[in-house]
Amino acid sequence: MALNVLFSSAVLSLLVLLQTNILRVVAIGGAVPDIALITLVYLANKNGSMSAQVSGFAAGIVQDFVSLAPLGFHALVRTLTGYLFGLTRGNIFVDPILVPVLIVLAATILKGILTGLVAGIFGIGSAFPGLFSSTFLIEILYNSVLAPFIFGLLTLVRPLVLDTRGRAIE
Amino acid sequence: MQFRDFAAKNRTILTLVVCVVFSLASLSFSSQSFVLRPKDVGLSFFSLIQSGLFQVGSFFSRTVASVKELGELRRNYTVLLDRVKQYEGIQNDITELRLENSRLKSILAFSQQMNFRNIPAQIIGKDPGNVFSTIMISKGSADGVRANMPVVAVQDGVQGLVGKIESVGIKTAIVLPLYDHLTYVAARLQRTRYEGLVNGIGENTVSMQWVEKTASKYIETGDLVITSGMNSIYPKGIRIGRVSSINARPSDTSLELGLKPIIDFATLEYVFVIAEPPESTTVQPENAVSPAEAPIGTAVPATTNPPPATLHGGAAAPVPTVPHPPIPEGTRPEGFEPPPPAGNSGNTATGG
Lengths: 170, 352
What we know:
The structure holds two protein chains of two kinds. Chain A has one domain (2-161): Orthogonal Bundle (Arp2/3 complex 21 kDa subunit ARPC3). Helix content of chain A is 71%, strand content 0%. Chain A is built from seven helices and no strands. Chain A is globular. By secondary structure, chain B is an alpha+beta fold. Among the domains of chain B are: 2-35; 184-261, Beta Barrel (Thrombin, subunit H), CATH 2.40.10. Helix content of chain B is 29%, strand content 23%. Chain B is built from four helices and twelve strands. In chain B, the strands form two sheets. Chain B has a six-stranded antiparallel barrel. A six-stranded antiparallel beta barrel of chain B has the order 6-7-8-11-10-9. Chain B is flat, with a radius of gyration of 25 Å. The termini of chain B are far apart. Chains A and B meet through α1, α3, α4, α5 and α6 of A and α2, α3 and β1 of B.
């Protein structure tokens, strides 16, 4: 399990770093898709809260290091996102298209709400212009549209690299 | 024993609590300046990975571009003769190289033109999310970049303010851009000389606040706003933006001006970190016009900037700079004049 958590954390952290430059190529209207969030939601649904919250925390810390956000900002948001979407494990059946779209739509909106809450509580004013911008709306749609493809890709790849027995991690 | 049972049963919740508490503690500490160090340490570590990723990304983007170019040549193959197609491909490459050469030369010319030590850098990344306005550059503490150094850029021959260095890793640094909510710059209207405070309001827009209300009669849309040099970070005379709107609310005691930044951040590729601005040691007369303030094409009277003073009162040793090769006469960008010889660091720059 520890190995799986480590692997998930490494993958999510790598995706966060990719979002800083390489994935900027596919930005629409300045909005970069949050591939790390989509992957986190997928892993949370497959592996449960324990693994997802730790992986989310690790990816969040990496994101804090490479952004203007104070240390702990994204770590908190992604930890809570990982935990909450880990609760869907065993409770939501993920079909190929509709559920990934809805679940990622909800995750992105939740990310926005949590970001706003944390920014409000800690007085991080520079987070608000980005949050209340058209860019964030585009990101919500972008993530939702990409969700079925990334879920499909991860479903194909996961047995090869994660849990070959297809068993839940927790 | 009971604690072990409890911990085993509630492992998930306990881990969640640990992660949340750590995040909250980090957040609390990060709001105080003395605890920025752990962030810098982390940035230093991840900047190495980031640099590697950037290199890999550049490689792939170049590869993809090459494949695309090959595909184009192949399509042409069906229409034109083989030899002609080859020449066309070569011609395309040459044109691209010429454009790149011209762009790099203008940047080099600008770098030479500045009468203070600067560190050229490339933008290698932006914020991983879409909430913060992070800009990451390819130079870090190993190259002499330090926190709070101002960052400028040149676009279409015009120098403009980009922001300042917020945190520094070994190989990369994070720039707080002009349009960020946390950016405050002491500024002045170039024509009317009224002062104010420029503040970012997000989404590539900035505003100038605390401008004297009586100035509304004299300020016009399109007026240039420059740094006033009245704080210790930004040197005097760097262009910030042009007035796009004038808001004079009856209830307010001051004006608020909307500004369009000089720099188009969407197309920004290269920046210059100002390592040692001479203005920090030289007091300029009120009516002095710095090169950046001068209208394009206007010659500015040459002045001599003394070498920066040291703490013990003597003149500091000249700052070592990387010598640039001379630029051939025919390839200089429009309006560019070669830098004056050593000892006369004042200039006849066109203010570009």
